[in-house]
Amino acid sequence: MAKKQVNEMSFLDHLEDLRWHLIRICIAVLIAATIAFVFKSFIFDIVIFGPKSMDFPTYKLLCDIATYFNMDTTLCADEFPFKIQARKVATQFSAHIWTSILAGFIISFPYVIYQLWRFISPGMKSNERKNSRGFIIVSSLLFFLGVLFGYYIITPLSINFLGTYTVSTEISNEFDLDSYIGLLRASVLASGIIFELPIIIYFLAKIGLVTPGFLRRNRKIALVLVLILSAIITPPDVASQIIVAIPVLILYEISIFIAKFVVKKESKNK
Prior knowledge:
With 270 residues, the chain is an all-alpha fold.
């Protein structure tokens, strides 16, 4: 039986199609998560607890910079003054499961995007499908860049600030495993999503909700929003917020050029 054309598909047919795409996504994430589950030592000792060690490359770089400018910093210490503990019976097993799922999602992200593109692409025109062939590659690249930025920049800055912050010498820092992993997870995923800004702007410009003029006029508002966002996902010190805000502002400027390109191309096709 021939496959129904997109314009002949009912609402229930679309839901059925979406269901199968979501099932494929879940299977892909599950397979990648299983692989991550097996490589427990690498995921936890190298990746998860990497930013806890002062040998982490980010700390070395920032320590060298601080030393060069004769700045007093905690980035040149031998070790962090805190310990990570598990205070519940199932904490370590639960952390193993959910961390594996997170790793599975990150690893399989290109396939996730591919399945989502397969769901929405039938509704596009032939020339639009042709022009969006690089969507999977670009969106995956931006996501992975965001993940790396969150892991190598935001996470170390957050751990360094919060791990060394103290209100009294009478208090010792002993962080729960869930809290530590939650900080890393939030930093990595938030950065990965933020770096998708050019892709989001592309589709918003495509449907006419955003124009280059709108983005230019609201540049000051965007700056304030970026600073607020930076304050949310980073520790409350100015240096960390500026470090995070700079790449986001660069992405915003890139998004203006993308919106300009889309609007110009749409006007030619009319």
